[in-house]
């Protein structure tokens, strides 16, 4: 079910949205995309997306993985639940501060065996580019604070 822009705006104004974030890991690197859309526009962020009405979490995981990376989650994938997080943004999908955004996020860690499992040249309407970020190094990348929380947790495991 897709909502009109007016209906979607009403939902974002009045309720938290439920989403999934995918922390895709290869050795000591995490897959990050530079966001094209608000909120978090121009920040590097993990792949993720909203769960749709009447969509199971399992189906949403598969859809989001495919839409965000062009790859499917295999049945034997090393997928681990990381926890439930809340993301608060002062802006919204329109990119203005007329109303804020609130997400309840189910985060998963997906370990990959080789870099060839994800084509980092893949782009979609959410990200202008993807890159493998080495979590053991410092960087000048503008990584969103919500993603930094995931990185800190992964490094502590």
Short summary of the structure?
The chain has three helices and seven strands; from the N terminus they run H-E-E-E-E-H-E-E-E-H. With 157 residues, it is an alpha+beta fold.
Number of strands: 7
Number of helices: 3
Give average pLDDT, whole number: 88
Q: Please mark out the parts with pLDDT under 50 across 5 or more consecutive residues, or reply none.
A: none
What structural class do helix, strand and pairing data support? Answer: alpha+beta
Helical residue percent band: 10-25%
Compute the gyration radius: what is it? 15 Å
Proportion of residues in β-strands: 25-35%
- Give the biggest sheet: 7 strands, mixed
Explain how this protein is built.
The chain is of the alpha+beta class. It has helices spanning 5-14, 57-69, 145-156, and strands spanning 17-26, 29-35, 44-45, 48-50, 78-89, 101-111, 127-134. Strands 1, 2, 3, 4, 5, 6 and 7 form a seven-stranded mixed beta sheet that branches. It is globular. The protein starts with a helix and ends with a helix.
Provide the fold topology.
Layout: H1 5-14, E1 17-26, E2 29-35, E3 44-45, E4 48-50, H2 57-69, E5 78-89, E6 101-111, E7 127-134, H3 145-156
Parallel strand pairs: 1-6
Antiparallel strand pairs: 1-2, 1-4, 2-3, 2-7, 5-6
């Amino acid at each position: 079910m897709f909502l009109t822009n007016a209906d979607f705006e009403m939902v974002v104004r009045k309720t938290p949205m439920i989403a999934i974030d995918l922390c895709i890991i290869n050795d000591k690197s995490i897959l990050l995309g530079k966001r094209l859309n608000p909120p978090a526009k121009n920040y590097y962020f993990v792949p993720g997306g909203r769960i749709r009405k009447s969509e199971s979490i399992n189906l949403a995981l598969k859809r989001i993985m495919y839409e965000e990376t062009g790859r499917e989650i295999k049945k034997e994938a090393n997928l681990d639940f990381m926890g439930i997080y809340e993301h608060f943004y002062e802006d919204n999908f329109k990119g203005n501060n007329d109303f804020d955004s609130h997400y309840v996020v189910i985060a998963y860690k997906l370990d990959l065996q080789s870099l060839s499992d994800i084509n980092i040249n893949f782009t979609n309407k959410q990200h202008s580019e993807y890159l493998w970020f080495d979590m053991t190094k410092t960087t000048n990348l503008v990584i969103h604070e919500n993603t930094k929380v995931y990185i800190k947790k992964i490094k502590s495991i």
